[in-house]
Structures are given as structure tokens and as C-alpha cells.
GntR family transcriptional regulator (Tritonibacter scottomollicae), 600 residues
Amino acid sequence: MARSDTRYREAYNRILAYCETLPPKAPIPSETSLAEIAGVSRTVIRRCLARMEELGLISWQGRDKHLLRAPLAEDRIAVPETPSDKNDLEQRFLDWVLRFDVPANTPLSVAELSRTFGVAQHDLKEFLAGLSRFGLVSRRPQGGWMLLGFTKDFAIELSDFRSVLELNAVTQVAEVPVDHPVWAALAQLRQDHLALKNAIDTDFHEFSKLDERFHLAINSVVRNRFIAEFQKVISLIFHYHYMWDKTEEKDRNAAAIDEHIAIIDALEARDAEAARLAAQRHLRTSKTTLLSSLRHHDLG
Amino acid sequence: MARSDTRYREAYNRILAYCETLPPKAPIPSETSLAEIAGVSRTVIRRCLARMEELGLISWQGRDKHLLRAPLAEDRIAVPETPSDKNDLEQRFLDWVLRFDVPANTPLSVAELSRTFGVAQHDLKEFLAGLSRFGLVSRRPQGGWMLLGFTKDFAIELSDFRSVLELNAVTQVAEVPVDHPVWAALAQLRQDHLALKNAIDTDFHEFSKLDERFHLAINSVVRNRFIAEFQKVISLIFHYHYMWDKTEEKDRNAAAIDEHIAIIDALEARDAEAARLAAQRHLRTSKTTLLSSLRHHDLG
DNA sequence: TTTATGTATTAAATAATTAAATGCAAGACT
DNA sequence: AGTCTTGCATTTAATTATTTAATACATAAA
């Protein structure tokens, strides 16, 4: 019960490592500077110093602190390893939802999710609270959460929103100076598209990666924290759905390659209007594909 | 320590109210149906029944439950009133940030916020986690949260994002059928704008409300959960900043009225391109105003 | 066979608890 | 004097423990 002392333990080892760089019998800097070195508060530093004194590593009386002997490997303190990264929780969660085809309106148990993802319950709750801002999950009246996503309405609204963002991005690309890295990226993408088009009969499943690269390049010109946040989620969802809808995959991908090239053509000609139209055409296809992949799933 | 029994207390009173509708000595329905009536689980219902039996309100043996006497006012159980609504927390929080001009990079104390807003700490944490999705707040390495918002970059990106959403909305309005309620709303708005323009010398501060109504009407045609979520935050921020930047308020508002009317003109002529251009002009003005309001704050 | 109840298990909300951060005053050193 | 350092006290935050509530399943009654 009560919070862990991981912060202290990590700080302790960090301070120990710092002391190894000091000459023998060197004076030890002030608590404040040690706190800065370890990136923690003075409270934690004092705990560290207390332990170091106890172990006979240092002498400590008031502001007189001296190193008595060089720290050894066995002086280090054990840190409870974090069971699982908490940063890529979003990636892993969406992956889980899509990979296992978790249907819409599924109740989500925080306790269970906490186990499967190896993340503390309240961290998960915070995460879900964040997702609820995207309308992906919501609180249930009787407590807990529920997955809302991946109904038809959701897919339509997601596609529409994606279109709005992406058309904006395309328009901006057309107005960007020639020395912007996006032009090099697009030139490379054109070659890779043409190469894949030639080998489409065998390598058509390679398109998914290419698609992601293409849209990432287009959106890279937009520097906007709000849009960036959404793009992460959007691209993940589209990516997976494309991968799993296997109906007419080869034909779909071949068509998409042409659509991508049409966009690149228009952009390199700096024809913003043509690029918008080409992008619109492509996004309409994407929307249809996403919707049909849902329909296939509904039917079994 | 441990969760409150508010759910039980509310259910109890609800069941009592239901029993008042029953005739004397009536049999009481099954636990499952009572659970449905009160909107809680059977566990809670059984607690309710136990208390009702204890008070002599009902007899209860196995599945034989009968009303013994009509419930009285004093049979009701006290429910701890929720100190403060938790739903409008967003409104109140943003209001607080903007009204007190909380500067960017201010550490936010969950404990303190919890007191000022009368909301439990973990509810606040969930709320902040949600806001972090909008890039308004973020976690601090040493724990807690910090307000990021309302730097120049933030304002620029917010304005740009707003423009993207709003230009999309304007385009959609132009394509909406004649019987859509937006047309009636716009007709009314045109009149109100003209009326305010005539009385601009005295009533210019009335514009803020009109502005909000105008943008709400435009955006009402877009049915999209993602966009709707953002619009709430965006409109609130712009609304407050407009209200507080008092420099040349009268002139600004007069100009904005003309810009609004220009948009309405183009829309009623179903000229999507002209409407986009008019909206673009207006949004550019808005952005400038928002930025200058920040600049004024920085200097004083 | 259906429906209701009894019982057990699991999950969720929330306060208690400890770790850590912060604030302030007094003292030491330059 | 003035700055830096420490000692001490207070406040805050993370995390567990605990209670309430929901759910699952078995059993019994209709």
C-alpha cells in the first residue's frame, strides 16, 4: 500500500554512478546540485545520502560530506523493473482491438486490460479517458468503460474527418517551397510506386507499407499538434483494416497505386486544385474500402 | 476509505417510490425486475430489500415478498449530495484558465484543483488525461501536470485547425438542401447581424454572443463526433479571448459583422467557392485577433 | 422449461497511506 | 551583506487496500 520508491532507487544508483567519477576522498556536492544531477527532489537525495552513510560509503555531518571509499557493484540497490512500457499503450491497445476484431459496444474491464497489458489500473483509466475524447470509448452508467468504435457511423465519420485533414495537407504540400524535404520523399515514393506496379502480381501485399509511407509524407508538411494527435490513430486504423480486407486486394492495390501517382503528378505540377481532386478521388475509394471491410466482418 | 454507497441509497429511494405506486399488501416483483426498474444490479436490490424488511415495510422469505405497509417520507434514506457537477468540469476549467489568465507552463496541482472545483482527485486526473490529448496539458516528469496552452504556437495551431474545420463546414453548408434548418438559422442571423450593425455604437459588446451563434449554426451541419469534440474547446477559447481583448473592440466587431454577412450572402447564393473565400478572410481576421490578444497579455 | 433466488467471484470506486516535492527559515560560508 | 546550504514542516502525488457494486453460475421453485 502506497506509492513505490522506484524514484528513490533509481536516483540512488544514479548518484552512485556519479560518485564513481569522483576522486577518492572527494567532497560531495550540495544536496541541491545532487538533486539536479539525479533529476529528483532534495527529499530523495537525503534518503540516498542516509543510505550511503549507513553503508560507510560517505561521511555526512551537516554540509560536510566526503567520499570514504569507491562505490562497488554490490552497493547498488535493486530497482523493480517496470513490467511493460506504458508509452506504447495506445499502439498496443488499438492493435489488440483491431487484431481480435473486438466488436463495437464491448464492455472493457479495466482490471482485465490492466492484466493483459501489464499496466497499472489507474494508468489504464487515464488512457481510456484520453481515448474517450476521440469517441472511441465511453463510460458506462453502471461503471467501467465500453468500446464504441468500428460501427458503420464511426467508420464514416472517421473517413470524413480523415478527408478533411488530408485535403488540407495536400493543399499545403502544393504551396511548400522546392527545398522542402517532402519533394524528395515524393520523388522516391513515385519510383517505389512504379516499381511495385510492375511487380503487382506477386508483391501486391507490399502496398500497405507503401500506403502508410505515402500518407505520412503528405501529412508531414502540416505542423499542428491537434492534427498530429489524430493522424496517429487514423493511420493505425486504416492500416489494419486494409491489411485484413483480402477481397480483391490485388486490384484494389493496383488502383490505389494509380491514384497515388495521380496525386504526386498534380503536386509536382504545383496544381493545387488538381491535387485536391485527385486526393478526393483516392479518399473516396479508401472510405468505400473501409466500409466494405466492416460489412464483410458483420456478415461473418 | 472505499467507494461510496450512493448507488445503493439512490436505488433504495427509487424502489421506495415504486412501492408507493403498488396497492396495499401487493406482491413485490422479482429482484431482476426491480434491478431493471432502479437501473442497478441485483446486489444493490438485495441490500434495499434487506433494509425494507428490517424496517417492517415488507415481508421477505425466499421468493415470497409482500408489501406490509405503505412507505412513508421518513422511510427514505439520505443521499450524500454531489458537491459539484462533474459534467461541466471542462467548461469551468477552461473558464478558470482564461478568466485568471493562467500563463503557459504553469504547474497544475491536482489537489488544489480538486478543492477549487469540488471534484474528486481521480476524476480530475481523468479529465486532465483527456485534455492532454488536445495538447493543452501534459504530465510533468517529477509528477503532476502542467498547463501548456496559450503560447503563441498554440494559438497559431489552434487557429489553423479551426480554419480547416470551419472551411469544411462552410463548404458543406453550401451543398445542403433548402429544407435544412441551417437556412432558417442563417436568415435569422442575417437580421440579427443587421440589427446589431445599426446599434453598434452602444451594443457592440453584444457581438460575442452573436459570433458564437453564427459559428455554431455553420458547424451544425457537420455531423461528426471528432469535429464536434474539438469545436466545444475551440469555441470556448475563442469566445473568451474575444471578450477580453478590449482594444478597438467596436471596430473589430463592426468589421466582423460585415465578414459574417459576406459569408451568409455567398452561402445563400449557393456559391461554395465565394463562401470559402469569405470564410477564409474572416478566419484570418480571427487569428490575428487571437494572436494580438496574447501579445497584449504578454506585455502587461 | 423457464424464471427467480442463493452464492461466489470479480471488478470498480475511493479513501488511506507512504513517497516525493515544495516552501520557508535559520545557519554557514564567502 | 549576500548567497548558498541545510533542517524542518507542509503539501502533493502515486499507489495500495478496502468497501461497494456488478456479474457469473449453480440451484431451486414455478
